[in-house]
Amino acid sequence: MPTEAEWEVAATRGESGATPWAAEGPLAERANLPGEPFEATAPVGALAGGASPEGVLDLVGNVAEWQADWLAPYPGADVVNPRGPAQGSLRAVRGAWFGGCCVEPQPNLGKPFNVRLRDGLAPSSRAVSVGFRCARPIAR
User: Fold this and answer.
1) Residue 97 in 3-state DSSP?
2) Is 10 helix (H, G, I), strand (E, B) or coil?
3) CATH of residue 133
4) Which residues contact 28 (CB under 8 A, 6 or more apart)?
5) How far, in Å, CA of 109 to CA of 4, rounded?
6) What is the residue range of 114's domain?
7) Structural domain tally of the chain?
8) Per-residue pLDDT tens for 68-105?
9) CA neighbor of 133 nearest in space, from 94, 99, 106, 78
10) 12-65 pLDDT, tens per residue?
11) Residue 135: which residues within 8 A CB-CB, separation 6 or more?
């Protein structure tokens, strides 16, 4: 699983720092949100217009994703590749899911939406709204 820092790079970085989910135009062409365009998870790669600047697909609206890090205050941009604590009670979960998590208003979308949802769940938790992504470091 990716760390939170790796998820951030995959979801929101790129040369412009912009995300495809904040762009103008129909959000349903870029993200699978409540009831549009799918009633549940979308087929892998079905919303290619929602690829992140790094080319990562399906980060928005299928399922939120478990992270390798334990949940703790996230230092953000002032730290390069931050790691969570070595232990904890909740694992970090990132991203939006198909049934909801629309929690903060975004002016250009016309409805509440938060692609960068951050939460924590006990590792024993199970939910239709949470999945995982396999990731490995890129050799440079």
Assistant:
1) strand
2) helix
3) 3.90.1580.10
4) 36, 37
5) 25
6) 1-140
7) 1
8) 999 998 776 666 778 888 999 999 998 877 765 443 44
9) 94
10) 765 556 666 666 666 777 777 766 678 788 888 888 888 887 788 887 778 889
11) 1, 2, 6, 10
